[in-house]
Amino acid sequence: MISDGVEDEEKWLAEGIAGIQHNAFYMHRALDSNNLREALKYSALLLSELRTSRLSPHKYYELYMRAFDELRKLEMFFKEVDRHGCSVVDLYELVQHAGNILPRLYLLCTVGSVYIKSKEAPAKDVLKDLVEMCRAVQHPIRGLFLRSYLAQVSRDKLPDIGSEYEGDADTALDAVEFVLQNFTEMNKLWVRLQYQGPVRIKERREKERSELRDLVGKNLHVLSQIEGVDLEVYKGTVLPRVLEQVVNCKDELAQYYLMDCIIQVFPDEYHLQTLETLLGACPQLQPTVDIKTVLSQLMERLSNYAASSPEVLPEFLQVEAFTKLSSAIGKVIEAQVDMPIVGAITLYVSLLTFTLRVHPDRLDYVDKVLGACVKKLSSKAKLEDSKATKQVVALLSAPLEKYNDIVTSLTLSNYPRVMDHLDNGTNKVMAMVIIQSIMKNNTCISTDDKVEVLFELIKGLIKDLDGIPVDELDDEDFKEEQNSVARLIHMLYNDDPEEMLQIICTVREHIMTGGPKRLPFTVPSLVFSALKLVRRLQGQDGDVVGEEVPATPKKIFQLLSQTIEALSSVPSPELALRLYLQCAEAANDCDLEPVAYEFFTQAFILYEEEVADSKAQVTAIHLIIGTLQRMNVFGIENRDTLTHKATGYSAKLLKKPDQCRAVYACSHLFWVDDQDGIKDGERVLLCLKRSLRIANAAQQMANVTRGSSGPVTLFVEILNKYLYFFEKGNPQITSAAIQGLVELIRTEMQSDSTTPNPVSDAFFARTLQYIQFQKQKGGAMGEKYDSIKV
């Protein structure tokens, strides 16, 4: 059915073009023979083809262009009076005898163009006559193209200021009146086209109307080009008349297109000075008009205008641009009750962008926009619409991008209230955007109240929202989120210890709600941040009278003890143990023996009760030994207790090689190479001998279970410990003992039951080379090594 209609239309178009070509042939012949009467006769017949009602606008345009080309030739003929011998006044009368109204008016416009050019009559009179007579054609398509032709031929003949057709003082207003009148009539015809034909082809009609819109919009472009249209004329005549037509036509397509045209074709300074009038029309438009796009474009143009000329910024304040735009947006949202939430938020995003570009220093304006958005969002439950969510993220991201400083955004009271309306997933995305902004700009958050606001903003990363379990999250994403929070904690700093302690307490309050999966990521950062503060306060162990929470190391260590205790119950005992040891080391530097002892006690309790995995036990005992070796705060009794515990646990490890290595590591607890360090040679030797026995037992066990005793690596490692203490001057470690150990290793290596191992062989060879090197070096050390035979 549709294809038949298309074929018919093609046929009708072909017939129309054939008719134009046929009559054009005779018209050309008449023009060549200077026969005016024949020329008018065939030109009228030619133009009669435009009387058709059967073509769509697209096809009618093709036909119109054929006729238009012929009319240009006819106009050239009319200009040459000596060819047709008729004055332009008589010609103007003559063409009015054409039989049909449409050809008559086309001919009248053509002659009218020549009439104005001849200056035999004022341009304003001829134009007024033509625009009035064109009312005779009320068919939408035919009328639109006729008036388009009138606009085309008169465009360069308007009585504008500075034009050759300028008459008396008010002629510029006559030009404006002519264009406005033509525009008004064309718009009426364009709107009427919507109501032609049956309802079932409504969509096709809308498409056809959309194709014709430039014919109407061209009038506004002509208006913007008229020199006489200054701000006063625009404000008093042009804008009110155009807006009256826009509002009264009550057509969605026309209102949207014409509002867009007004914004695009007239200068920005005019928009700024007539903002109230322009915005006043917006709530009066049809509810279905996409007003958000129109207003967004207006605000974008004004923003660009402000950015291009900083000297115009006072004008924005003078006309109260922000207040007017804000009020207009509120009225539009109120008037268009069916406007989707995404439309309203898009308007607020545009207003916020405008505010940040034009009034970046006015944080109260920024907060007001966010507040209006909160009010709109409050009427809905959590956002479900993904497009609306994206717009909210854009709204919240705009201040971050503008100020490059989260601290500024934290002063906006409505910022967190907007975030509360995001769904959990988007809340996290926004929280990550905030953290990335802080990292990118290296922003330091330095006050407790700002930290409170910040952590309220990123609460989606810190705790489970609305009872959604953390197990539902992707593992990689979760780790990235929590590592970001951990990095953020290091960006919180204040030179004042009191304020810094308050910040740490605030952070602790928030992160302790994170649950077992989050604490292992966030607690270490908090602990190290607190330990940094402890280092700054070293030596202040007394309480300050009159202070509610004095920032002293003791107070901070109490806080840390409670924090790590929560971590150990997660359970994450290995991490908690490491943190206890870090705190013990810091307490050692602060010369707080009871505190350090308590942290070690907690570490040992964790080791005993929670660390069950054999590999984790090995790592933990070596950490304990390493930390304890660096401690110098303990008295003899406390140190003996702790070293006894460490050596006892070392000997109880599951695997013999692990036992051996832990026990010989304990030897360092009895020989600290400092000026005041402990130097107990006997207990060092005791540890080394014990490790030798364990190594020997390991060899025998391997022999029993595998039929071979395995490599001699452990013996070589113990030999290296002997050499270390021998060089440090331990009197219990003699050259004879080293010589005996070397011989023992050689015997083991030559034994049939020992499995050859290139690594341990090379290790032993390098150790012997070292002994040889020390002997050859000479001096006191050379003498010590001299008695050892390798």
TrEMBL record:
Keyword Cytoplasm in record: yes
PANTHER family for this protein: VACUOLAR PROTEIN SORTING-ASSOCIATED PROTEIN 35B, VACUOLAR SORTING PROTEIN 35
Membrane topology: Peripheral membrane protein
Source species, domain of life: Eukaryota
Signal peptide boundaries: none
Organism: Nyssa sinensis
Alphabetical list of SUPFAM superfamilies matching this protein: ARM repeat
One GO biological process term: intracellular protein transport
Keyword tags: Cytoplasm, Endosome, Golgi apparatus, Membrane, Protein transport, Transport
One Gene Ontology CC term in the entry: retromer, cargo-selective complex
Subcellular location: Cytoplasm; Endosome membrane; Golgi apparatus, trans-Golgi network membrane; Prevacuolar compartment membrane
Gene3D superfamilies assigned: Vacuolar protein sorting-associated protein 35, helical subcomplex Vps35-C
Species lineage: Eukaryota, Viridiplantae, Streptophyta, Embryophyta, Tracheophyta
Protein name: Vacuolar protein sorting-associated protein 35
